Amino acid sequence: MMTHKFTLKLAALFGALSVMIGAFGAHGLKELLLANQRLDVFEKAVTYQFYHTLVLFLVAILMKPYASKYLCWSARFFVFGILIFSGSLYVLALTNHLFIGAITPVGGVFFILGWLSLFRFAYTDL
Q1: How far apart are CA 75 and CA 63, in angstroms?
Q2: What's residue 1's pLDDT?
Q3: 3-state secondary structure the chain
Q4: What is the mean pLDDT of each run of 10 residues along the chain (126 residues)?
């Protein structure tokens, strides 16, 4: 079960990683990303990771006063979305292996499910 403390810790970790990965991409990997013509892909991965980290943080805060299975599912979906969507884009940007991009939409589906679970929470539990 996703507890509010565990979810908050994940959000903090993903937030720190967003900043570190973004900075490393902008400075340490810029030449590789430009050579692969994938700087935009890398930036999209960081952006989506950070946006969904912020909503994961919000979900963690909501989990404390509200014991809702929909919040737990929302948190899980956002975590899987970050790992699969952003993770696959990072790998694509660094390796230029196009087949990796085939799993990126699965991460997008997880993001959508996370938002819909958050909607379901708001609709039924508030």
Answers
A1: 9
A2: 73
A3: CCCHHHHHHHHHHHHHHHHHHHHHHHHCCHHHHHHCCCHHHHHHHHHHHHHHHHHHHHHHHHHCCCCCHHHHHHHHHHHHHHHHHHHHHHHHHHHCCHHHHHHHHHHHHHHHHHHHHHHHHHHHCC
A4: 94 98 96 97 98 98 96 98 98 96 97 98 94
pLDDT of residue 126: 86
CA distance 50 to 68: 24
pLDDT score for 2: 87
Comparing CA positions, the residue from 37, 22, 47 lying closest to residue 92 is 37
* ∠ CA 117-119-124, rounded to 5°: 95
Q: What is the pLDDT of residue 63?
A: 97
- Give the chain's end-to-end CA distance (angstroms, integer): 21
> Nearest CA to 101 among 44, 57, 49?
44
Q: Please name the amino acid found at residue 10.
A: L
